[in-house]
Design brief:
Number of helices: 5
Order of helices and strands: EHHHHEHEEEEEEEEEEEEEEE
Strand order of the largest sheet: 3-15-7-6
Number of strands: 17
Structural class: alpha+beta
Distance between the termini: 24 Å
Helix content: 40-55%
Strand content: 15-25%
Length: 372
């Protein structure tokens, strides 16, 4: 590389966009009122959607989870007591009181009855008390079995209620989110016609534009450089996970930065490192899938072009020459799936050097960078 004094020479790429036809202008004017109406409506609904976020029900899940775990811990402990035949003290106290009341009433009644009949000797009294004790023990056993069943049912109800509290809060939160989500969907639906109209006109006009390259001294970040960037920003782009071949291996295209080195092709189609001049990224666009003969797949935009060794060939064309591959034989384009139904953030690179050699390897297939 030569180094020397004097003014700095800068290569700038710009796009020459064809003028709008009468039919295009007529159609645009006819659709503009409809598009404006949709955008105005979308803006109003979007404001309501943002306001409704504050009205959504957001439970204190930390507190609810703590309450739930505490309740289920007590339920588990209660079932362990049941397995051991233990009941809470409240059940034992209630049984004891009921038994004492019954014994007092029964013994008193029996003694009075025997005394009234003149039978008040010890053997008769002992026999009567033994009968009362046997009946009391039988009733106690029945009460104990009943208490076990009652306590088991109470534990089951407690666990069920704890689950219903969590489920109820979840349903309430989901129900409160539905209006907000619907408003966002309505806003997007109203904005889509205007967005589609703009993208169709923009991409169509930019796609039919021609590219010119000029060299001048001084700062190259002028208006024409900006136009060149805009002219292809929405045409030639790759999904963020696309791997770019660099001298040090692979890097995802969304992680590439200006000044990074990537592998490219020189005028003799020899692999050479080049510096990234600029990045275009973060545009949400429809994705198409391009399938190559070596198993490689591109996730890109509909107007992306690849390098066949002599020219840039569009994936959108009817005829597909073979594509140049990094350290491999040229491969065929097997097919293009255009209606994937996916939208992703897309990115593209501009490399330093001649615009006709603005080439980098995307998933190891030679691709045209932004600006040509």
């Amino acid at each position: 590389m030569k180094k020397g004094g004097g003014s700095k020479s800068t290569t700038t790429t710009s796009r020459v966009i064809p003028g709008q036809t009468w039919n295009e202008a007529y159609l645009e004017n006819g659709l503009m009122d409809y598009a404006k109406s949709g955008l105005n409506g979308a803006g109003g609904i979007m404001s309501k959607a943002l306001q409704s976020i504050d009205r959504q029900y957001n439970p204190d899940w930390t507190r609810l989870a703590g309450d739930y775990n505490g309740t289920m811990g007590r339920v588990s402990s209660g079932y362990n007591d049941l397995l051991a035949g233990n009941l809470p003290s409240q059940f034992a106290d209630a049984r004891r009181k009921a038994l004492n009341d019954d014994l007092q009433a029964t013994v008193g009644s029996s003694v009075n009855n025997l005394a009234g009949r003149g039978v008040i000797n010890s053997s008769v009294m002992s026999k009567a008390l033994d009968d009362i004790s046997e009946d009391a023990a039988s009733q106690l056993a029945k009460s104990y079995a009943s208490d076990l069943g009652t306590y088991s049912g109470l534990l089951g109800s407690t666990a069920s209620n704890a689950n219903q509290v969590l489920a109820g809060n979840q349903l309430a939160q989901q129900a409160s989110e539905t209006p907000t989500n619907s408003l966002f969907d309505y806003a997007a639906a109203l904005a889509n016609p205007a967005s589609n109209m703009y993208n169709t006109m923009y991409s169509g006009r930019m796609g039919t534009g021609s590219t010119s390259t000029t060299t001048s001294g001084g700062n190259g970040n002028g208006i024409w450089s900006t136009i060149g960037t805009l002219g292809t920003a929405f045409i030639l782009c790759f999904a963020g996970d696309t791997l770019v071949t660099t001298p040090d291996g692979y890097a995802k295209i969304r992680d590439i930065r200006p000044g990074d080195m990537v592998l490219s092709l020189d005028e003799d189609n020899e692999v050479t490192p080049k510096r990234v001049a600029s990045i275009t990224g973060g545009h949400l666009r429809d994705i198409v899938d391009v399938y190559f003969g070596d198993g490689t797949t591109w996730h890109t935009t509909a107007r992306q072009r690849y390098f066949d060794g002599k020219h840039f060939a569009s994936i959108d064309s009817a005829h597909h020459p073979r594509a140049v591959v990094f350290q491999g034989n040229p491969v065929e384009v097997l097919g293009v799936e255009r209606d994937t139904g996916r939208k992703e953030l897309v990115y593209d690179l501009t490399l330093e050097g001649p615009a006709e050699r603005n080439i980098f390897f995307a998933n190891d297939v030679a691709a045209e960078g932004m600006g040509d």
